[in-house]
Amino acid sequence: MTDLGFLPASRLTRMVRRGDIGCLEMLNHFIERVERLNPALNAVVVRDYDRARKRARMLDRTRGEQRGALLGVPMTVKESFDLAGHPSTWGYRDRASHKAAEDALAVQRLEEAGAIVFGKTNVPVSLADWQSYNPVYGATVNPWDVKHTPGGSSGGSAAAIAAGLAGLEIGSDIGGSIRVPAHYCGIFGHKPTWGLLPPRGHSMAGAAAMTDISVIGPLARSAEDLAIALDVLYGPDPAETQLTFRLPAPGNKRLSDLRIAVWPSQAGHATDPETVGLLDDLAKFLRGAGAKVSKTARPVFDPDEAFHVYLKLLYSALSGRATEADLQRTRAAAKKLGASDKSADAVMMRCVDMPHREWLALNERRHQLRRLWGAFFHEWDVLLCPVIATPALPHMQKGETWERRHTVAGQEIAYNDMLFWPGLTAGYHLPASVAPLGMSKAGLPIGVQIVGPLYGDRLTIHVAGLLEKTWRTFESPPHWD
Predict the structure, then answer these.
(1) Does residue 177 have an active-site annotation?
(2) What's the CATH superfamily of 4-253?
(3) What global pTM score does this model have?
(4) Distances (CA, A) of 164 to 106, 173, 423
(5) Which run of H or of E encompasses 174?
(6) Residue 47 has what DSSP assignment?
(7) Which of these is catalytic: 10, 126, 132, 153?
């Protein structure tokens, strides 16, 4: 039998319900895997075994009364989510002694659905990198190749799922932080429509307001698991309102029913040729399966303008959690910029002290472009595009992100210029699922980003499930048995 560690959460729950295995037995299996394999991976950085075992025993005693969709699933959560009695450092050394007073709302909802949270996974400092390392917990490696990053900021989350250390995970995303790790590690991930999943308990300052663009969402080994987690997690915060609502259903659409736009590359934004080639291959497959496919359909706007609007909004959002020292470094770097510098870093740094009136105009332009996205999705069900420019990056842990360079398709570019594919959709609050697309010649996973209309979360996950059945499924990396 396939090791429990590599089964989807939906199957783990079915095994518990049938009585094939008890909750405590399953939890201990995952704990054993963490204790044996995590030293080489450094994905799980906070452990809460005692509470988890107590909860597993309770679920075993009351199993016949339990109806939760995640009954018995042992899982971890990103380090940035509050777990009562444990630190939420966000990678900052001066928060190492912090202790959360209560569980994040997402953790509460997961456990109400029967999940057993037994630990937390690694992140970069301030959740602001595609590398998952920090001075508190060190660096996490990619289970496909330990010389490469698992991505960030939910890098520990994706590594834990790929290596079979947890049955399910939850991360967060403002610049690809769910989608990029899912792509780098060959798993499934979902960045929800902004505001759909309440983030209470995912803030260093205990903020009541949601950060612009930022969302929380699941990472898993199957599309079905994404759908289950979405159902468990979405809906308004009950501390604010008793309002409830239902997301639109995807319908019983087959591949042949779908209208699919494919955007494999964009002039001026270097993208790895293997990624482009795999998307081209997928487009041919989908057309052969009867789907209506276009490789030229695009929203009616300038992609570069849309990208720059996102970058300005992104930096404005991130500045809210930046320290004064961080802001001073950015101000100093901004003064050195040349007038002709149009890099992503330059666009963001010039926003370090943006007046509110200017932000309001920027936000208005964002909503105008969001409506153009809406018009596009009246004509097309989903858009398929790269997640980010390349497969998993090598470890790059020196200097600020704006000081780094990377070669893509033979072209050296600024590290943060790779925000194009994650940001083109995220800045407009759209949902996007990631599913496995293929493998690079170097043996690294490549994912596809499946983008849909606002609140079309069930549809993008449904399409991920169709691709899982017909194109490519989760594959476990070697040497993590």
Answers:
(1) yes
(2) Amidase signature (AS) domain (3.90.1300.10)
(3) 0.98
(4) 22, 22, 29
(5) none
(6) E
(7) 153
